């Protein structure tokens, strides 16, 4: 059952996404009447005004953590709407960036919503993963700058949409795998590596966990690379692959130590049957004593 803040996030996300509905109404002169040319409706101006009004509304209605949740959900709804508008209205060279915005909005909002349903007791305003780390923010900013540079110096490259489509498929695979991991593990899934085993903490080995020992990391790894393929950012494709690989190599090694402490022989048996799923990463492997 979805938590209260999960419901609040739905309202916030839909409020942000609703700018598309307002834009469609204005395009059809529903508000302006038949005497005003619909071409005067600038999507950017509409977006700015709608963003300001909706943020004021969210601030007035909500307080405390509810406000933080609703504001972030509103932001992601607006990002999704902006991505769709760019995909529809912008020239061909900008469409990959619009698709990227949609992919980012879906990933971060579904991350929060999945936790709100599967493990609400761990839900916080940080569950959107928007403030994941400084490195994550730097990586995102770098990818935007690369897009702008290529767009300026080699604009035609951004119109090779077949490459972006391949990226979208990879993002969809990574997204489905990560969310599959959350929904399979449910209250065993947390965003932070657990230091102590709780009474309800069990070893999950079915579903996507029968494919990979760390399906959420495998999904995130390929999703992150996919985002750069969507934007046709050749430098960041390589940089993201290397940086993500290093991050998950260290994270998995540390996490498997705690899992071995929690589940002992059961986890060793699980390691022997199921691989990690990321290239050249073995995790923390315990060698059995030979009799």
Mean pLDDT equals 92
Molecular shape: globular
User: Count the helices. How many?
Assistant: 10
Topology as a string of helices (H) and strands (E): HHHHHHHHHH
Contiguous runs where pLDDT drops below 50 for at least 5 residues: none
- Class of secondary structure makeup: mainly alpha
User: How much is the radius of gyration in Å?
Assistant: 22 Å
Q: How would a crystallographer describe the biggest sheet?
A: none
Query: What is the straight-line distance between the termini?
Result: 49 Å
Give the helix proportion (percent range): 55-70%
Beta-strand segment tally: 0
Strand residue percentage: under 5%
Main location: endoplasmic reticulum
EC number: 2.1.1.100
Subcellular location: Endoplasmic reticulum membrane; Membrane
Catalytic activity: [protein]-C-terminal S-[(2E,6E)-farnesyl]-L-cysteine + S-adenosyl-L-methionine = [protein]-C-terminal S-[(2E,6E)-farnesyl]-L-cysteine methyl ester + S-adenosyl-L-homocysteine
Describe this structure in words.
It is found in: Endoplasmic reticulum membrane; Membrane. It is an enzyme of class 2 (transferase). This is Protein-S-isoprenylcysteine O-methyltransferase. The protein is mostly helical and 291 residues long. It is 66% helix and 0% strand. It contains ten helices and no strands. It has helices at 4-17, 19-27, 43-61, 64-89, 95-118, 134-153, 161-185, 215-230, 234-263, 265-273. α3 (43-61) packs antiparallel against α4 (64-89), α8 (215-230) runs antiparallel to α9 (234-263) and α9 (234-263) packs antiparallel against α10. The mean pLDDT is 92.
């Amino acid at each position: 059952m979805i938590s209260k803040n999960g419901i609040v996030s739905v309202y916030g996300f839909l409020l942000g996404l609703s700018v598309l509905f307002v834009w469609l109404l204005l395009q059809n002169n529903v508000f302006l009447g038949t005497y005003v040319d619909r071409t005067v409706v600038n999507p950017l101006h509409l977006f700015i005004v709608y963003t300001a009004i909706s943020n004021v509304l969210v601030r007035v209605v909500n307080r405390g953590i509810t406000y933080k949740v609703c504001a972030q959900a509103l932001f992601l709804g607006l990002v999704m709407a902006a991505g769709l508008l760019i995909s529809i209205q912008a020239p061909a060279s900008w469409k990959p960036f619009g698709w990227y915005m949609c992919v980012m909005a879906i990933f971060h909002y579904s991350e929060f919503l999945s936790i709100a349903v599967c493990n609400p007791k761990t839900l916080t305003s940080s569950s959107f993963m928007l403030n994941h780390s400084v490195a994550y923010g730097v990586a995102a900013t770098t990818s935007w700058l690369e897009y702008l540079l290529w767009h300026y110096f080699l604009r035609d490259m951004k119109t090779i949409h077949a490459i972006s489509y391949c990226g979208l498929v990879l993002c969809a695979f990574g997204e489905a795998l990560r969310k599959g991991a959350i929904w399979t593990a449910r209250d065993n899934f947390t965003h932070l590596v657990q230091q102590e085993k709780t009474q309800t903490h069990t070893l999950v080995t079915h579903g996507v966990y029968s494919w990979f020992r760390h399906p959420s990391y495998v999904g995130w790894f390929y999703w992150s690379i996919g985002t750069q393929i969507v934007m046709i950012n050749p430098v960041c494709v390589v940089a993201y692959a290397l940086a993500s690989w290093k991050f998950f190599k260290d994270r998995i090694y540390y996490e498997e130590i705690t899992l071995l402490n929690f589940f002992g022989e059961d986890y060793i048996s699980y390691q022997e049957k199921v691989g990690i799923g990321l290239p050249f990463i073995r995790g923390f492997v315990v060698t059995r004593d030979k009799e």
